[in-house]
Write a structure and sequence with these properties.
Immunoglobulin-like; 10 strands; globular; 155 residues; five-stranded mixed beta sheet; 2 helices; alpha+beta; disordered N terminus
Length: 155
Amino acid sequence: MQTRILLAALAALSLSTAALADAGHSHGTYAYGVPGDAKKPARIVQVVMKEEGDKMLFVPNRIEVRKGEQIRFSMKNHGESDHEFVIGTHEEIVVHAEQMKKNPDMEHDDPNSKRLSAQQNGDIVWRFTKAGTFEFACLIPGHMEAGMVGTIVVK
């Protein structure tokens, strides 16, 4: 049983690594920018994660930034459940969400994502180097479907 779990985890990791490489993630670059430098100034954008009845929400769920701008996403999980904040293109979010359905306890160590336990706070620093419309979502199975998805517009 443990061997099967390990093999499934390795297969998921392999798929995840291949998907990230295909999406242009090699060498620390992404379709929407690069990891920020925490030592440099950044505009702080506060994002609250929470549940309201059977809905799960990000507040705000739409964020506008300027191309080249560095943002410090200051996240607060005001909910009763774990939540994630994952930045990506629509395609990346869809692929990653499918991987999470198969491996719901997948741990992340990516500069564009952060998982927070209930009542926990955390930050992501990101510099948006390309204009376009991107997404952020909670990819824990069922959360995105319950409304935990948002839009980042880079002008």
